[in-house]
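assembly run, all chains below
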Amino acid sequence: MNDYAVEAKNLVKRFGDIDAVNNVSLMIPKNSIYALLGPNGAGKTTTISMLTTLIQPTQGSARVAGYDVLSQADKVRRNIGVTFQETVLDDALTGRQAMTYHGRLYRFSKAENEAKTAELLAMVELEDAADRAIKTYSGGMKRRLELARGLMTEPQVLFLDEPTLGLDPQNRTKIWEYIQDLKQRKGLTLLLTTHYMDEAEQLADCVGIIDAGCIIKEGSPKELIDQMGKDAITMIGYGNRERYLEQLGQLPFVQAVTTAGPITQLAVDAGNRRLAEVVTLANTEGFTIEDISVAKPSLADVFLKYTGRQLRDK
Ligand SMILES: Nc1ncnc2c1ncn2[C@@H]1O[C@H](COP(=O)(O)OP(=O)(O)OP(=O)(O)O)[C@@H](O)[C@H]1O
Ligand SMILES: [Mg+2]
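ok done. output:
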């Protein structure tokens, strides 16, 4: 028995002279949630496109739901669901029509098609809106409809490209609930991409940070955060930063110093207790702190550490 829903080995995708994906390997155990986290242009959508057989890798290989994406593309397609980053719903259709048209593509019987449609629309709480044109739906409703449509074929593996992009917090929370429920009740494996750190932290069993086409760090959110030290002191200021950072790095309680643009971050053993010392040192080293805060490290701090960049929510 194969325990992995997705096994990708050294995937590469080049578009002309752009390396969109540069040697990505992924092993995603069945019935787990994997979040691919990365800035714009990192290669998230391209990775999903290869795994869902929309495009062929330039190099490397992958198996999804046990089938090879190149030699068994049909079987892969039959065992996966995908929702895309851009809404691909036809606005003139009603929600119910969008579902049943999709079912026809897969040659469901009429009865089966209608039953599945009704069940899934109920699951995403769109029963009341089912017979209205999609153009009257809110962004969150459209996303939920796409999720429902992606489930029509009872996939083993579901690929969600930015499932909550542009949604307000309430709608996002709702979609998280569906995603978690799908994993628990239907035993699905999910690969999702997101810009939202809190989303990955909440949902994912495993997170992969992707930047410039490479996965640069992977682990459970807890593992990654635990590696960051106990507390994070984050500050912005001006003056002789280089010298100040050098001195900070020599303090015994400072485990790591990270900079990203104007931001400096220190991993320390006990933030509140060390704050005074950090500020005092700034004064003696001619560095003026404009803003300083202490917090428990989060996945956003992990991202900052490994990419040297902040990942801002769009
Ligand atoms: N069809 C294409 N032709 C040429 N270049 C492409 C194509 N698709 C993607 N790229 C390039 O490949 C890189 C990765 O793009 P991709 O869409 O995978 O990023 P992403 O991580 O999904 O970004 P976003 O967060 O903006 O959705 C980018 O530099 C992009 O411009
Ligand atoms: Mg994308």
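Residues 111 and 117 are 10 Å apart (CA to CA).

The longest strand covers residues 4-15.

not gonna interpret more than that til we talk
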